[in-house]
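Loading example: each entry is read as two labelled lines plus one structure line.
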Amino acid sequence: MSNRDSSVEKLLFAAASSLGEAKERWELLDYACRDDEEMRRRIEELLEVQTVADTLFEFEPEVQSGPMEDVEEEGMGAHIGRYRLITRIGAGGCGTVYLAQQEEPVRRKVALKIIKLGMDTKAVIARFGLERQALAQMDHPSIARVLEAGATASGRPYFVMELVEGERITDFCDENRFSIRQRLELFVQVCYAIQHAHQKGIIHRDIKASNILVRSSDGVPVPKVIDFGIAKATGEDLSMETTGVLNGHITGTAGMAGTPSYMSPEQARGDADVDTRCDVYSLGVLLYELVSGRTPFDPKRFVGVSIEEVRRTIQEEQPKPPSAAFKSAALEERAKIAEARGANSTTLAKLLAGDLDWIVMRAMEKEPLRRYDTATGLAMDVKRVLWDQPVLARPPGRGYLLGKWVRRNKLIFVGGCIAFFGLFAGLGISTLMYLKEREARLAEAGLLQKAEYREQIAHAAVEIKYEDFEGADKLLAQVPIEQTPSSLEAAGAFQAVAEWHVRAGRLPQAASRFTAMIRALSSVDTSDLPSVSMSLLEVAAPVAYSGGAGPYEEFRQLAIRRFDMTANAAVAEETLKACLLMPADEKTLKSLAPLAAIVEQAIEAKEGNDFWNAWALFAVSLFYYRTGEYPEAARFAEQCLANSNQNEVRTASMLIVYAMIEERLGDSTKARAALIEGRAGAEIGFSRDDWTTLNGPVYWFDWINTLVLLDEAERVIDSKVEDLSWFGQHPS
Amino acid sequence: MPAELLPLLYDELRHIAAGYMAREAHGQTLQPTALVHEAWLQVTKTDARMWTDRSHFFRAAAQAMRRILVDRARAKASLKRGAKAQTLDIYEVDPAAATMDERVLLVNEMIDRMEKDDPESARVITLKFFGGLTNKEIAKMDDVAERTVERQWAYAKALLVRMFRYELP
C-alpha cells in the first residue's frame, strides 16, 4: 500500500464513518471507489471492525452496577467498600462528607468524603495512588491522615480520612474570643504542620479555614489540617473551561480547585507545577482572616462573575493590608470583630498595622519568589511578633542604590530560608526511591548542592545582620558565581558584603561579590527602573577595574540581556555607561545603539534636569567614541564639558574620553591637554580619603570609572608616543 | 540534558503512568510506582541528552512503557501456560473480549507490523495506548487540530483490527 493510497483511504474512511446512515455510506463508496474495488473492500473492512476496535481500545472498565447506585438516594446504612455510612456530617464545594464505620481490619470510625460526579474517577484514584506513599510518610499530630481512596459503585471517587473532631479554626477562635496573640500561636502550629508535609514532598494546595479544624484538649487548642492529598488528586482533572456559574465558591465538580479567596495567583492561572509556596500564600490568607476577620477579597465579589474575572482579580489586584481591611468594615462589624478578639476597635487596628500587615502581605506576594520561602519562615516571623522582636531590624550598610526593597526582603528572608535545607532533604527522600540511575544521582546531587548554597547564603545573611561581614564573606565565597541562586535574599547578602569590601578598599573582592549579586538579581527583579539599573554601575566599576576583560565582558552581556528592551531613558543611560567602560565589539555596540538613541532623544527633548543631561551627554559621547564616530563623539563631549552643571568626577571622566577622541581625530595637542587636565581631576578625587563612601551626587563608583577610563586613555595616547619614538621622532 | 531537568521529566513520567493506570482494571498487576520506576530506568538508560524537547521525551517514555508492559504480559502468559509453552498466540485472542495483558500483546504485535506501511498510525497508537496521552496532548505536541488527532486515532484503531482480522501475518 503506497502512502498516497493510504492518505486517500484515510480521507474516505473519515468521510464514510462520519455518515450515520449505511445507505449514505454505500453511496459515497460507490461513487468514490468506482474504479478501485480493492480500496472499497479495504474501507468496508475498516468500517466493519470499528466497533470491535473501539472495544479493544476502550480503557474504562465497565462500571459494575449494584445496589449502591447513589449513596444519597440510598441513604444511610449503605456500604461503600468496607465502610458503612452512618451519617452525613458535611457538604462542601467538591463533595459530601460522611461519618462512616470501618468494619475490618479494625473497627473504627472514619470520615468518608465522596467527590461529586463529573471527574475521571480512575484518574483521580490513580493520582491519589501516586502520592499515597508520600502521604503515608506524614506523621504529625496536626495532620489528619488520609487512609484510602476508591470508587463508589456509581463511579464516584471517595477518600477515607482519619475522623477529626473540631471546629473550623476561625469559628473556634471567635467563639473562644481568642486574642491576637492566641491566634498567632495557633497559626504557628498550623505552619509547622504544613512544613512537615512539605518536607515529605506533599503540597496541600487547598489550605483554607474550613480545612483546619481545632478542638480543645485539656484546655489546649489543637489544630488539625485535613484533606491532604485530595486537592492534588482531584484538582488536575478540573479545567476552568467547564466550570459553571460561580456561587461564592467555585462550584463543585469542575473549576479551579480550591476556594477563590485562598487561591494563589499561580493556581488561579492554572499552573501545573505549583510548588510549596502556593501553600505559603494560602497560609497568608488564613492569617489575614484570623487576625482581621476579613478575607483579602470579598467573597461576594466572586459571585456570578466569569472565571476570567476571578482569575484577573486574584492575579492582578493588590488586596488591602489586614489593618486597612478591618478599618474599612462597617462600624458595627468592626466592633464585632474586635470583640471576638478580646479587644476594642482602636486597639485592634493598632495591633494589626505594622508588623502583622507586613507579614501577611509578604506571604501573599503575587510572585512566589517574593514570598517566604517556607512555611517555617512565615512561622518564625510571626513568632518574632510574639516575642516583640523587631521583624524589620534595620540592616547595616548604606541606604542607597537598590532602593528599600532589597533590604526589606533581605532580612525577612533570613528566617525564611534557614529551614530550606531541611525541606530539600525531605523532598530528596521521597524522590530518591526512584532515582537510582547514574543521571538520577547526579540530579539529586545537583539539587542538594543548590540547597547547600542557599543554606550558606541564609547563614551569611544572619551574620550580616550581626555585622559579621568577614564570616559572611567566607560563606559567600564558597558559592560559585555561576551557581548563585536567583533570589532577593541572595542579592541582598552579596550586596552587603560587596559594599563592605568597597569600604575597605578591596575592589577585586567587591567585584566578585557584585557580579554574584547581579546574577542573583537578574531574574528576580524585572522592573524597568533606574534604581535597579543603577546597581549595574556599582558592579561595572569594580569588575572593569579589577576583574579584567573576561569577567567584564560576561557582566556586560548580562546587563545587555537584562536592559536592552528598556524604554526608560534613565535606565538606558545607566546601562550605556556601565557597558562601555571598555571597548566593545560590533555586536555589543549594535545592541546598545537603541539605548543611545533613546538617550539622545531625551537630551533633545530636555527631559532631564541639567545634572542628568550632562551625564547623558557623557554617555552618548562615549558611545560614539566606541563606535568610531569620532566627530559625533567630540560634539557631545564638548556639549557635556560646556554644560552649566559640572561635577568634578564627571568632568574628569569626560576630559579623559575627550582626550581619546581628539587623539583619534589626529589632534595630539588637544588630546594631551585634555588628558593632563582629566588626570589632575582624577588625582584630586582619589586624594580624598572619603571617596569610598561617597553617596551622591558623586558616587564612589564614578571615581573608579574615571580610573578605568584613565588607564585606557593612557594606553591609547602613550602607545602613540611609543610609535613615534620607534621612528626616532619622540617629541621633546 | 541538564541534570536538574531530570526530576521534571520524572514528573512527566508519573503523569503518563497515571494515564495508563487509570485505564487498568482494578486487579492491576503493576503498582503505578513500580511502573514509573521501571520506565524511568529504561528511559534514563538511553542517553538523556537525546531528548531535545517534551515531545521527544513523551515518545521515549511511551516506548519505554510499551516495552515494560509487553515484557510483563509475556512473562505472565508464559507463567500461566507453563515454562515450556510457546508464547501466547495472539491470533487466538478475541479482540472484543481480550484481557488487558492480551490487549497489550496484540496491540504491540500489530504496531510492529503497521510501522512499515503506516508509521503515522503506529505512532498515534503508541502514544495513545502505551503513552496514555490524550488527543489534546498529542494535538499540542504535533501542532495540529485536536480533530485531526481524533481522525487519525479512529482510523488507526480500525486499521489495527482489520490487519488482525483480514491480513495474515
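The two ends of chain B are 41 Å apart (CA to CA).
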